[in-house]
Structures are given as C-alpha cells and as structure tokens.
Amino acid sequence: MSDAKRIYREELYEDINNVSSGGRTFILLVILSAFVAAIGLLRANVAIIIGAMVIAPLLGPNMGMALAATLGDSALAKRSLKTNFTGMAVAVAIAIVLGWFAAVDVTNPEIASRLQVSYADIVLALASGAAGALSFTSGVPGSLIGVMVAVALLPPSMVFGLLVGDGQFQTSLNALLLLMTNVVCVNISGVAMFLYQGVRPNSWWEAKKAKKQTRIAISVWIVLLAILSILIHLEFG
Hints:
Blueprint: H1 3-19, H2 24-43, H3 46-55, H4 59-71, H5 74-101, H6 109-112, H7 119-138, H8 142-165, H9 169-196, H10 204-236
C-alpha cells in the first residue's frame, strides 16, 4: 500500500472513530433531538422533525459499524455498536416517558407514515447508508448526510417509544420493524460503499483477516434483511 493510501485510510479511520465513540456530547445531542422529534411527531410538524434530524448524531456510530465490518476491526465494531445502542436506547426511553403522558394518535400522518414499511423504505435506507460512507471518503459535508441517516433511524425510534408509552404495543411493532430494517440497510450499503471506494486494511495479512470478517458481517446483515423482508411482505403484502 502506498503512503498516500495508508495516510488516507488512517485519516478516515480516525475521523470515524472520533464520531462513533459516544461521550457526553453525543448523549446530550441524542436527548435534545429526541425531545424535538417527539414534539414534531405529536404536532405533525415536518419542520420540527427535520430540525431534530439535524441535531441527531446518529451518522457516526453507524458508519463506525460499517467501517469496522469493512476492516475486520472488532474493537471499533464493539465501540460503535455500544454507542449506537446507547443512543437509540436513550431516544426510545425518552419517547416511552413522553408517550406515557401524551395521547398518541396513530392517524397523525407523521406517525402513521412510520407504521407502514415498504420496499421504498429499504431503498431510502440503502441510499442513506451509502451517502453516509461517501461523506467520509469523498469530503461531502457530513452534517448534511447525517440528516439522511437520521431520517431512517430517529423518527421510527421515537414512534416506537411513543406507542409503547401509550400502551399501543401491537401497533408499535410496525415502527420497530421499520427501525430494524433501516439499521440493517444503512450498514449493508455503508460497507458496500467503503469497499467500492477502495477502503482496505494497511497490510496483506490484515486484509486477509478483514476479508473473512467482512464476508461474515455482510452475510449476517443480508440474512437479517431477508428475514425482515419476509416479515414486511407478510404484514403489508
């Protein structure tokens, strides 16, 4: 590997590692975006929901998971997975509490739209993940691309939590199905984009190990997507 490629790879790794490590700022942004998103959803106000997605820091940990799968980096994978899970858990917990006090109307168009899952949602999530990876490898402003990833992850997380808090457990499963589908698709396309952009480990022995782990990771994601697609077909035809 040339020095230029090695430096490029190390800079990419450092950038993604920094934004996927979590911390107090990450949690604070999740809390703020969750409250804003909940208000936007309950009021059916698209502008407020978009504002929440601008705040939401969900791009980093998901790209961390995708890069970890690409490089076969288990440490980055664990760190990114923990950050991603923590962020979503905080958002869902806030939504559950708010749903306990607020009446959640499933006919509200902004909520109802997150209770239907179609193949168009799969395409949207795939595009979001690919754009996320591209933002790190080509210098596209990450703040703009982060909105795309937040579109796929934050609203369904909040709808799921709001419905759980309101006691509408059966209906909430549709939002959970959308959330799980989006997480899987974002990671599949993120890995695919990193591979397309030529992101590889520094040495041949790392590359050999990474190739095997990447195949395993992609296989797991694809199996999960197949299962979710079957559930989508059974539920929504």
